[in-house]
């Protein structure tokens, strides 16, 4: 069969000159495709006599194999060249300094919870926890809150849905962390010293209140505890929390169903230049409620009020964070604004402690 050498030179040259895989595919189709030149010559072998067909078929198969091998080699070469170019353009110098890695921050509420825990742990208080969905008994009855109290109405408290005919005791989203104190006394008995930080829920929705907020309550029960111990505990807490050398507290008579006597506690402060200063000035600011635990509360928790007595107090964690860190708007606590979080947030590994400083 004449012209095979010319055909071979033609296609080997075309394969070598293909600049990319698309051009190489065009060469393959022209030579070896169903309608390609070599494929057409293979189809014509049937018209030859047996001897000529045998010789021509061997020559065409050899040509086909050689061109196919050249196509494969060229394709591999193009792929290597493309990879080299990609590596060249995507090259990264690993010796260059890396980009600064953004890290998350601790929310001010979480920070203040850790600070509270550190301060009260130093005074011998353990941290107690309880469920956020509480029974009516734990949230109200055990705390000497009478059935007619406004807090037990739906305009004040979130009651869980009950099906018609369900006569089981109602459950509520806890309105304070006081039920944790009841559970702690029932579990551990007396003497006991605990704080109970956590989320609480009330139907307060305006510029200064949110339906969910954070509260910490404290409880100390022993044989000879008095209001004097309560006063010292709160003074030491305020001095450590606000990181000032001294504080002055004022106790005002009040009423809470679960304490008797009860007292609202004010702290001396000043607002000169729009900046809060604790422990100085001629103004007073209410910060918490407190009192001696009511005997009915002790009895409900299984503690004999003829043998044991103690004090309790409660304060808002969100408000403490606002006062200490100069946060003007309560609503910002719950808006998940990254700019706000980066500004007011705390480094994740800077755990507060008394020797090293609470708010480093």
TrEMBL record:
Domain of life: Bacteria
Record has Protein biosynthesis as a keyword: yes
Required co-factors: Mg(2+)
Main location: cytoplasm
Enzyme nomenclature, EC number: 6.1.1.20
Pfam family, one: Phe_tRNA-synt_N
Reactions it catalyzes: tRNA(Phe) + L-phenylalanine + ATP = L-phenylalanyl-tRNA(Phe) + AMP + diphosphate + H(+)
Keywords, ordered alphabetically: Aminoacyl-tRNA synthetase, ATP-binding, Cytoplasm, Ligase, Magnesium, Metal-binding, Nucleotide-binding, Protein biosynthesis
Residue intervals of the Aminoacyl-transfer RNA synthetases class-II family profile domain: 110-335
Keyword hit for Disulfide bond: no
Binding annotation for Mg(2+): 260
Record InterPro entries: aa-tRNA-synth_II, aa-tRNA-synth_II/BPL/LPL, Phe-tRNA-synth_IIc_asu, Phe-tRNA_ligase_II_N, Phe_tRNA_ligase_alpha1_bac, Phenylalanyl-tRNA_Synthase, tRNA-bd_arm
Entry GO MF terms: phenylalanine-tRNA ligase activity
Enzyme class: ligase
Subunit structure: Tetramer of two alpha and two beta subunits.
Family statement: Belongs to the class-II aminoacyl-tRNA synthetase family. Phe-tRNA synthetase alpha subunit type 1 subfamily.
UniProt name for this protein: Phenylalanine--tRNA ligase alpha subunit
Gene that produces this protein: pheS
